[in-house]
């Protein structure tokens, strides 16, 4: 059995990780940590875990946790995974960070978007961006995995076939994304207050959201040229899910069928990316609870734009599910171990 430690087990992402890993046949919990709930049984905080997980939440004792676990997950606000990574690295263990601390390769870009000093710059080159559909081989051999952000997961999977195959003008990409409120985490805030979100739909972070450099970094690698994107996130009155609608200018005349054939080839054999048939559109409900990213493509022959839609569950393929997928890749296990393919409906 692989012993895992989850630092930040009481956030939305951490609690999903506990739920998924509790059903994973190769994993046992070494430690589940919390700042606010240390001393409580996890099901006292999360009743849905009653009868499933009986572990007690504990305060973080970093040296002890790292010594006692084979793989450590951090599900903490950004800025907090760096000291953990140093300890994990020194003790030859493996880290999967669900936050943003190791996603950007350039510490100066991290510092300018996150307004936080990067204190583990020496480890950045060893970290692998944990999107298994693109970096499976590197993930297998890495000891620091930077689990992607939720918006970037939906955008990058949606656009990768177009950029890799040089089908679009790389400077023409527009990403219009909508997220459920759980994307903002469990902490109390005015942004996620019931009466602020219910019946409301609004954009935020226009031209300033911190996922922009992450998306640009990854899309530039795929395109083979540096590119910039216009990315606008929106908060929608739902709990889970991200739906991204993306637009780009095609380099040549193509039909929807031709572009779809390229997508099917690109994602052939990928368990968790479902390229939908022509005429079928993704929805957040169709992926809720599952690790799938559903993608649809339409060519608007009138404007010569291709329109891509992609849907994920922000807490599963956008966070905890992707982290479990990365764990499976690292361990050489079937990638769907402990993960759901079909979601919940309705
Ligand atoms: N929510 C989502 O959809 C996604 C989240 N992520 C990333 O995953 C990480 C966790 O997100 P999420 O679960 O939403 O966040 P939450 O706010 O729901 O949870 C944060 C967790 O971190 C702990 N924590 C908070 N502040 C500190 C601190 N100063 N020191 C130590 N522990 C602390 C909390 O502990 P306690 O509760 O005990 O106080 C809690 O366990 C973030 O980096 C987030 O950006 C990534 C993709 C998607
Ligand atoms: C709806 C909502 O508020 N979403 C969050 C998503 C951020 C997130 O979880 O991403 P990191 O892992 O990169 O911090 C936001 O826009 O800040």
Characterization of this structure:
This protein is α/β, with parallel strands linked by helices and 346 residues long. The chain folds into 2 domains: 2-148 and 317-331, NAD(P)-binding Rossmann-like Domain (Rossmann fold, 3-Layer(aba) Sandwich), CATH 3.40.50.720; 151-314, Dihydrodipicolinate Reductase, domain 2 (2-Layer Sandwich), CATH 3.30.360. It is built from 13 helices and 13 strands. It has helices at 12-22, 42-45, 62-68, 82-90, 107-114, 121-124, 132-141, 150-164, 194-197, 212-223, 256-266, 284-287, 316-331, and strands at 2-7, 27-33, 71-74, 94-97, 127-129, 144-146, 174-179, 202-203, 230-235, 242-249, 273-275, 293-300, 305-312. A 7-stranded mixed sheet has the order 8-9-7-10-13-12-11. Helix 12 (284-287) links the parallel strand 11 and strand 12 (293-300). The longest helix has 16 residues, at 316-331. The protein is globular and about 60 Å long. It starts with a strand and ends in a 15-residue tail after the last helix. The mean pLDDT is 97. The chain binds NADPH dihydro-nicotinamide-adenine-dinucleotide phosphate (NDP) and N-acetyl-L-glutamyl 5-phosphate. One of its GO terms (molecular function) is N-acetyl-gamma-glutamyl-phosphate reductase activity. Pathway: Amino-acid biosynthesis; L-arginine biosynthesis; N(2)-acetyl-L-ornithine from L-glutamate: step 3/4. The active site is at 150. Keywords: Amino-acid biosynthesis, Arginine biosynthesis, Cytoplasm, NADP, Oxidoreductase. Catalyzes the NADPH-dependent reduction of N-acetyl-5-glutamyl phosphate to yield N-acetyl-L-glutamate 5-semialdehyde.
